[in-house]
Each structure stands twice: as C-alpha cells, then as structure tokens.
Amino acid sequence: MEEQLKQLQDEAVMKAAAAQDLKELNDVRVAYLGKKGPVTEVLKGMGRLSAEERPKMGALVNVVREAITKAIETKQVSLESEAIQKQLAEESIDVTLPGRPVKLGGPHPLTRVTEEIEDLFIGMGYTVAEGPEVEQDYYNFEALNLPKGHPARDMQDTFYLTPELLMRTHTSPVQVRTMLKHEGKGPVKIICPGKVYRRDSDDATHSHQFNQIEGLVVGENIRMSDLKGTLDAFAKKMFGPDREIRLRPSFFPFTEPSVEVDVSCMCGGKGCSICKGTGWIEVLGAGMVHPNVLEMAGFDSTVYSGFAFGMGQERIAMLKYGVDDIRHFYTNDLRFLQQFSVHE
Ligand code: 2U9
Hints:
Residues 111-319 form the Aminoacyl-transfer RNA synthetases class-II family profile domain. By secondary structure, the chain is α+β, with helices and mostly antiparallel strands. It folds into two domains: 2-90; 109-340, Bira Bifunctional Protein, Domain 2 (BirA Bifunctional Protein, domain 2), CATH 3.30.930. It has helices at 2-18, 22-33, 38-44, 53-91, 109-123, 137-140, 172-181, 224-239, 291-296, 313-321, 328-331, 334-337, and strands at 127-128, 134-136, 165-167, 188-197, 209-219, 245-252, 255-264, 280-289, 305-312. α1 runs parallel beside α4 (53-91) and α5 crosses α10 (313-321). Ligand 2U9 is lined by residues 170, 172, 175-176, 212, 214, 216, 252, 254-255, 284-287, 289, 293, 308-312.
C-alpha cells in the first residue's frame, strides 16, 4: 500500500510537470486528486485498516496529496507566467513605427487676410469691434447720413426683414454703436471686420454676402494726412514695401471729402491685365467722417474730426493671391483651399 502510494505520487508529479497547458494540468488534478481519483480511493479504504495502521496511513496519504498539490501549483504558476509572457510578446507595441499621417487643415484665405489686417491695425493701437448682422435701419442708414428716401440707399440694395430691420449692408453700424458708447468723448480708434449682405446677383465679382473691414478714428486734430499715412502703411504691409497709394476724389454720404484709394500695380506701372494697363488697382474707399455723422453719434464736430475707410476682404484676397472668381471663396473646393495651406 505504501509502495503503491509512493508510485502514485511519482506518477502524478511527473505528469503535472509534463503538462503542456492549464487544461492538461487540470486533467492531472482531477485524475489524481478528484473524487474518483486514487488518493480518494485510498482514503475511502482506510476504514478497513487496523486502529494502529490508520494514523500512519492517514499521514502518508496527506503527504502524498500535498506533494501532488504542490507539484500542480508550481506547474500552474509557471504555465500562467509563460502565458502572460507569450501574450506580452504578441501584443507588444513597436513605438518606433512611424505614425499614420494626420491631414492638417489651414485657415481659410479670407480668415488669413482678415487676421493679417487685424494684426496690422492692432499694432497701430486700434481695437477690434464687432456688432450684429441683423441691424436696425437707423444704425445702418439713418445715422450714417442716409435718411429714408436718400438716393444713395439705392447704391446698396438691401435685404429687409421688416421695414425697420435688415441684414447690414456694411459694418459701419458697428462704428456708430461704438461712437454712441463713447458718449461724445474721443479718441475712438477701431476696426470692424464682419459679414455684410447686399441684394446682388452672384457672379465672378459680386456676392450677396461678403466680408468687410472698416476702420474709424475720431479724435482732436485728426486730418486727411493721418488717413493717407495709415492707408500707405496698410498697402505696404498687404501688398509689399514697394507699393504706393493714390487717392481719387469720390462720394460717400458718410464721409466728406471722400476718396477712392488705388494701390500701384505689381507690374510696376508698365501696364498688365490686372491693372488693365493703368498701373493702379482700386482697393478701398475712405474719407473724413461727415460732420452730420459725428453729431448724430454725439460728438461735437467743431472739436472732433475723424477719418474712416472700408474694404472688402474678398477683393483684397483676390488681388493678393490672384483669384479670378469671388465664388471660389464659398464653394469650398479643397483643390482651391489647399493652395492656401500653411502646412504643405
Ligand atoms: C462711420 C463713418 C464713416 C466707412 C467707409 C468706405 C468709405 C468704402 C466700401 C469699400 C468696398 C465698402 O466693401 S466695400 O464695398 N467702403 O468705400 N467705407 S468710408 O465710413 C464710415 C463708417 C462709419 C461712423
């Protein structure tokens, strides 16, 4: 009996050590230590032993059972750690592999132009002011020296929402609102970028919605020469240090005198298709703020004077980047937009 148990132990320990995986090891456990296994069988037969032999035999069975259990446990630990090592090896990440390329976007050309203009004017001490796109007739027209029935209102065909509410036709109402907030005290030095709306038929050079930046400076002793110097700095920053500006007389109801501003063409005056042979390209409108506008916004026009200017970012971007159709800015064709990417 003793011999038989020893043999059983050797056999079980050997089989446990030889198990290839956890399932095989469990089969060994069930085969030797399970309810129907030989060790249990021996324990069951203990009743037949004499009172002398029983404790001796019991102790031996326990030793055998513990030895088998230990062999199984030791093997289990080694199989489990092998499994983890295998999994770690299989699932390891090669951090040296190159990543998948991420496609980077870039700012829209109109955003680039707007931010470039903002940067220039912020650098000259201006602040950026914004206002509503749905505007009151009063701020959009009336306060800008354009009373109801004024013929110049026809120059800007308007989307009316109600007789008193409209989609703003320029960003000038933002300047009016800002001046009113100043309650007659200068200086005011702002630029107002934003979307504006006109009842135009869309074509290569017109859009019913476009972007404008207007500037306004109100203070004591503000003169036309201040306007000219400011616009010269603008032209050189946007188009290059060799560019010049020229002012031509014009008319706007909200400025007096009013001018149209041309920048010299990059052909250097030789004449090309962009300047249509003239050597000059029209880029913006400007003038000295009309005394009526100053007074309506609460400023004493005998003390204060000011200049204002306005331009369309689309026109600036078309000239700067050589774009021949304003609709390219709104159709979002990636082949167009990607040409302005700063990440190529
Ligand atoms: C106030 C007083 C004066 C804004 C001005 C222009 C001249 C001008 C056009 C350029 C091309 C609009 O985008 S465009 O079609 N603008 O020529 N704008 S002076 O004058 C103001 C504005 C506000 C209180």
